[in-house]
């Protein structure tokens, strides 16, 4: 029986052109990109070329691109990276409880991270969606509080394919001076530029017929990169996987 694979939202086969580009660094050019010797510097040059290409793809600056081991690592970094420093300074907000806004249809990598924050005393608002799976931007505006620190709303939903009105939500976040993160792991295969108000933008290579378990996160210059807990918040995450530099891993 011929089988048809339809779960491209989860992962995809590697395109031959991508495989050809990667093979030299899986064999002869195996240098550690942190090493100062010639093989290491050749590997480092390849990484920086990839960083430049990703930056061009989404309209960011190369220094804002941080590679991670997957979407979950990137999402955890964005959410924890904004919340944890503020939790360490209780006087940052007029209310004792920090506040985060998200939606009920986020990937578990975001939902579980928000639930982890709730255990630390963070208040989280989970916005409903309409019958088409769309978040009403006005519901985001109504959910804002003086202590709101972060809005995290995905771009394209991994189950429904619904695309959220990020430009409108981004404007609301900018007007309120609130950090805005979007999980755009499913968006690499469509034309998408993150909203200018976005502080963090997560995307992954797997849904785009690229390398397995590779992702990146943009971090605006005003939001310093922080190393967060190696215990990643996501579903079915193998405990043997490394946390990587910034903190979040997922395969779709």
Q: Could you walk me through the main structural features you see in this protein, from its secondary elements to its overall organization?
A:
By secondary structure, this protein is of the alpha/beta class. The chain has a domain of 157 residues: Aspartate Aminotransferase, domain 2, CATH 3.40.640.10. It is 31% helix and 13% strand. The chain contains six helices and seven strands; from the N terminus they run ααβαβαβαβαβββ. A seven-stranded mixed β-sheet has the order 1-7-6-5-4-2-3, sandwiched between helices. Helix 3 packs parallel to helix 4 and helix 5 runs parallel beside helix 6. The two termini are 28 Å apart.
Summarize the structure.
This protein is 31% helix and 13% strand. The protein contains six helices and seven strands. It has helices at residues 16-26, 38-58, 71-87, 108-118, 137-143, 166-176; strands spanning 65-68, 99-103, 123-127, 148-152, 179-183, 200-204, 215-219.
Give the topology.
Blueprint: H1 16-26, H2 38-58, E1 65-68, H3 71-87, E2 99-103, H4 108-118, E3 123-127, H5 137-143, E4 148-152, H6 166-176, E5 179-183, E6 200-204, E7 215-219
Parallel strand pairs: 2-3, 2-4, 4-5, 5-6
Antiparallel strand pairs: 1-7, 6-7
Helix pairs in contact: 3-4, 5-6
For the largest beta sheet, what order do the strands appear in spatially? Answer: 1-7-6-5-4-2-3
Low-confidence stretches: 208-213, 221-231, 234-252
Structural class: alpha/beta
Count of alpha/pi helices: 6
CATH topology group of the domain at 63-219: Aspartate Aminotransferase, domain 2
Radius of gyration: 18 Å
What percent of residues are in strands?
5-15%
Q: How do the SSEs run, as a string of H and E?
A: HHEHEHEHEHEEE
Total number of strands: 7
Gross morphology is globular
């Amino acid at each position: 029986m011929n089988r048809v694979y339809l779960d491209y939202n989860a992962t995809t086969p590697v395109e031959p052109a991508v495989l050809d580009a990667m093979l030299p660094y899986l064999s002869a050019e195996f240098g550690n990109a942190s090493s100062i010797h010639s093989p290491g510097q050749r590997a480092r040059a390849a990484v920086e070329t990839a960083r430049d290409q990703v930056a061009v793809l989404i309209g960011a600056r190369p220094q804002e691109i941080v590679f991670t081991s997957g979407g979950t690592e990137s999402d955890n970094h964005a959410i924890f990276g904004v919340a944890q420093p503020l939790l360490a300074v209780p006087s940052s907000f007029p209310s004792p409880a920090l506040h985060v806004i998200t939606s009920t249809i986020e990937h578990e990598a975001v939902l579980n991270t928000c639930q982890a924050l709730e255990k630390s005393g963070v208040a989280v608002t989970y916005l409903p969606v309409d019958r088409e799976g769309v978040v009403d931007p006005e519901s985001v505006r109504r959910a804002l509080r003086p202590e709101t620190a972060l809005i995290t709303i995905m771009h394209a939903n991994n189950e429904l394919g619904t695309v959220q009105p990020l430009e409108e939500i981004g404007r609301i976040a900018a007007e309120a001076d609130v950090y805005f993160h979007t999980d755009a792991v499913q968006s690499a295969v469509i034309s998408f530029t993150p909203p200018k108000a976005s502080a963090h933008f997560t995307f992954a290579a797997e849904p785009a017929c690229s390398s397995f378990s590779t992702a990146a996160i943009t971090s605006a210059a005003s939001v310093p990169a922080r190393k967060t807990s190696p215990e990643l918040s996501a579903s079915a995450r193998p405990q043997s996987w490394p946390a990587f530099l910034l903190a979040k891993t997922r395969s779709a």
